[in-house]
Amino acid sequence: MLLILKSFIIFLFYFVSYAQGEIKECKWNDKKNIPCVTIVKPTPNTSIISEIGVRKNIITAKEIDDYGAIDVNDVLKMVSGINLTQSGPRGQQTSVFTRGTNSNHTLVLLNGIPINDQSSTQGLHDFGSDFIQNIQQVEVYTGPNGAHFGPNAIGGAINFITSNDFVNKIKITGSNNQNNTISTNYNTITDDGLALNLKLALTNSKTNSAKYNGIEKDSLKNINGNLNIEKWLNENLKFKTTFLGRNTVAEYDGSSSEEEYTGDNLMYGAQIGLDYQRKNTEDSIILHYHKYDREYREAGTVDEYGSNAYTLRGERKTQLGDKISYGFGGEYKYDWGEFENKGSYSSSTKGHTDNKGLFSNIGFKPYENTIISLYARSDDHKTTGTNNTYKINFTQNINKLKIGATHSTGLRNPSLYELYGTDSTGYSGNTKLDPEKSSSNEIYGEYNISKDFLVSVTGFKSNIYNQVEYSNKQYINNSSNIDLNQSGVETAISWKNENQKISLFGSSLSSKKTNGVDQLRRPEKTYGIKYTNKFNNSLIGPVQLSFDYNHYGKHWDTHSTNWSTTLMDSTDIINLALIKNFLGQEFSINITNLFDEAYQRPHGYTQDGRKIRFGFAKKY
Fold first, then answer.
1. Would you say 441 and 424 are in contact if contact means Cβ atoms under 8 Å apart?
2. Taking Cα atoms as reference points, which of 449, 439, 443 lies closest to residue 486?
């Protein structure tokens, strides 16, 4: 199989003679010395026509800046269908639940390549360690996306995009010497067209105790950086590479006491790729590597976690006239990980897996306003064998109305701990586990009342089966035929003009097992508003105001001390940002949790109260 995959990738990169039409021209702006680099990040396993049916929520660099986001959690809170729980204030461990699925059902990617940490027990991603300064754009895909991204995208996928930012800028925000962020972006283009972009940032935070009603404050320090290099080697061949790293050091508390321990979470990675573009065909190949190195220290005991991953991926996209487009590709991914958890409870694991994937898609326009898209992917995993996912989408445009329906599937392969782990209670891994699987149906409608006024409604129903669960000191696939069902409705209204933009969004969710038991930490109702207004004040001149409001509904959770199921109250959080440009410099005020609401999420862990940050930014 590996030989076949290697042969395919060689074919993909070199066999370009079947590309139709002439080469795209890439002209240069000599006055500004800026290359004609268009930042486009298409969804994997799509082509020009089939991608029309892909629905994703994009948070741009400008939105991130407008709302004063510091970490990834600040960004994800803006997205309908995403629920977060963070074990304390900024920097603490964070889980994401997408459309009511489990926290290990959301695949996290860097420029389309998976980066979930296989040294964690369930192979999930800690969003609390990720800060936003080295990310140019965030894409959120809700619903099963196995056909696009591969295993572990049962609930959805979150894609971090890195790319060149051509604005040289330094920015400082904070409230005091213990709570601040300094970041810089530097870009240069050499005479021979090499575009180099460097982003660096340092964040310090010391606010509340992670424990609810705790006395001592827990600190955080995050350092992150990103280097992007791009160069057109000729008129249709582009070289690109990115290096990304972050180190997050945070103090943690237990839920029932304020015993101190410190987590040191290091992650770094690199990608090198080539894009070959012709008029009707695009080829790409990318080689990816990332590493996690985590240590947790408590009273002299050190727990160590580490993982490495290598990915080689190639893809071709082709358009055949106005009616048909297709794409195909292949991917090889190798994961290695180990950890040793010491103390009164100890556990460890060490092992590796690999996965080989082949995928394809076709988009077809039988009529001018009708699109049918088909996607398929086959994955061959070291222990679970061959498993297939697919997606079918139908999209119809009727004047200003767009309606669509999608049926899609997903899967999650077992983590290294579930396969090879051990602990002091007698647990041993199970290499005979099958993957968890899902099936989902979705219908949606979008109505453009005018060019700048959009209303959309999405209804979905999903089923997750063959779940991996702990029983009799071993992980097994669900033997009681109790599946996990999610269903819900998501709505969005957006309107904008030259100076204002407002978005209203809401979600109604039901996430239950088939025996009627509610899933924990999944609120039934969430809704919110994002608003930006550029206005001219007679006293101080032009000012930009941004605010966002989020309602997080009542939900069930586990009590942090007696482990009973407890009902958590809803929260209403408002954040406010003001930006003023003066003499070519930018001044800002950000107020988070404006009304200082005290709440726990999850139970036993406090969240930040009202915080005021002042900012200064200068282009250079």
1. no
2. 439
* Residue 435: cis peptide before it, omega within 30 degrees of 0: no
Calpha distance 353→342 (Å, rounded): 24
Q: Whose structure tokens read 């080295």?
A: 134
Distances (CA, A) of 587 to 173, 189, 474, 580: 9, 28, 56, 5
Are the beta carbons of 138 and 131 closer than 8 angstroms?
A: no
Phi-psi label, residue 518: left if phi above 0, alpha if psi -120 to 50, beta otherwise: beta
Tokens representing residue 345 in the block? 């409870």
Count of the separate structural domains present in the chain:
1
Tokens of 17: 């003679």
Token pair in block for residue 470? 């702990």
Spatial contact of 532 and 500, defined as CB atoms under 8 Å apart:
yes
Sole residue written with tokens 């999608």: 406
Residue 23 has pLDDT above 80, yes or no: no
- DSSP single-letter state for residue 11: H
Residue whose structure tokens are 């015993």: 259
What domain range is 590 assigned to?
A: 2-619
DSSP state of 127: G
558-615 pLDDT, tens per residue?
Answer: 998 899 999 999 999 999 999 999 888 999 999 999 999 999 999 999 899 999 999 9
- For the cut 60, the answer to whether the pLDDT of residue 13 exceeds it is no
Per DSSP (E only), the strands in 177-259 are 179-189, 195-206, 219-232, 237-252
Separation of CA 473 from chain center: 33
Mean pLDDT of the chain: 89
pTM of the model: 0.91
Q: Give ∠ CA 93-79-526 in degrees, rounded to 5.
A: 90
Residue 368: both structure tokens together = 């001018």
Tokens 């060490």 label which residue?
350
Cβ-based neighbours of 51, under 8 Å, separated by 6 or more: 42, 43, 363
- Give dist(CA 150, CA 126) in Å, integer: 20
CA distances from 408 to 113, 234, 394, 508 (A): 20, 39, 12, 21
The CATH number covering residue 202 comes to 2.40.170.20
User: Residue 54: pLDDT above 50?
Assistant: yes
Check whether 35 has a pLDDT greater than 60: no
Which uninterrupted H or E stretch holds 12? helix 2-14
